[in-house]
Amino acid sequence: MLTLYRPGTGWVHRAPAGPKALVLLLVVLGLSLLPSGYAAAIACGAVVVLGYLVTGLGLRELARQIVAVRWVVVITLGAQLIFLQTEPAVANTSRVLATLLIAALLVLTTRIGDLLDAVERALRPLARLGADPARVALVLAVAITTVPVLVRLAAGVREAQRVRGAGAGLVSFVIPFLVVSLKHADDLGEALTARGVR
Amino acid sequence: MSILLDTVCVRLGERLALEGVSLHLDQQRIAVIGANGSGKSTFARLLGGLVTAESGTVSVLGLDPARQARELRRRVGVIFSNPDAQIIMPTVAEDVAFSLRGDRLPRAEVARRVAAALEEFGLDELADRAAHDLSGGQKQLLALCGAMIRRPALVIADEPTAYLDARNSRLIARHLLGEASAGTTASTAHRLVLVTHDLALAARCDVAVLFDDGRLVAAGAPGDVIDRYETSLQC
Fold first, then answer.
1. Whether complex ipTM tops 0.85
2. By three-state DSSP, how is residue B11 classified?
3. Chains A, B: CB contacts under 8 A, how many?
4. What is the number of structural domains in chain B?
5. What is the pTM of this model?
């Protein structure tokens, strides 16, 4: 989700984010309404393959996305095989996998900025109830951007502990990580203010 | 008139970070030097409207940073030493475009200005890259690009080269000092307040001010002020 966007010039890339999200949502809903049989699994596979070919992303990108969610597939299929027959378990897992891969299609072909604009537009009716759509979109953007920073800060804390001979411990990790994270939040707040965000 | 301070005091918690500072600066490029904790960064934040004075009067580009903060931020760009904390949007182009968000410009105009600014700062080939995957120097260039795209009248840079290698430091310095902007669109002649520990960089400015323990101890020709600072460092 963080760095998924793949530049492209096809019509799916150029389509506006809001309607594109709506169409993909309808596709997912359509797949979820199919009866739980092998035919549903085949339909899910066909729709997903078609989607990745039409967008120009290709089967290699599709394979990369499947590898990324492999544990979701293993856990979903494994849990269902305990309680269900093989056919419904495979069909249900195919639907879950198709949903994830179709959702990935949206972020693979849409810039985060355009997605956030779409979120802002979708939330605009809530402005009458006192919500601030621009602020909600900004919070989402900052949250998405901050995840890799927090990952790096966590790695820095672990590294600092290792070079000083400290063993791995939850408390000894959490406190310094919280401190550096709060410092980052403080700096980010100042940068937002400097860039004209109230 | 660019910057005018009259007996300004700034308190950060219990500590008096600036004490009785009076200053009148009209030069294009102003270097701010001094030891860690001397009040340099507080001075920069005061000018950018990020901290407020406890007493005294402050005027930046004819505006009061405390009362006219919104107007001031339209005309002032701020760069910090840590570029990680300045990146708001996930990709390079989106982060630069974020600076224009409040201007309600047409999409095509935003795209045109972002493309021109990225090209000027040599980031055009990285437009769709995740901003946090960039190197430290590229991130600082991105932060500078994000500030400069708004064509600010004044740029305040707080130790912008602190984390950079020699090559990237030179690149950032050239952009800040206006030496890289000839024939380009995004950077017109801006005023600069440059907080720095790099005395060679400070020497390239038009005037330098020296802080020590929250007080202004010297202001004048960079060579003289740097000499005074270096003398104070000798134990």
1. no
2. strand
3. 81
4. 1
5. 0.76
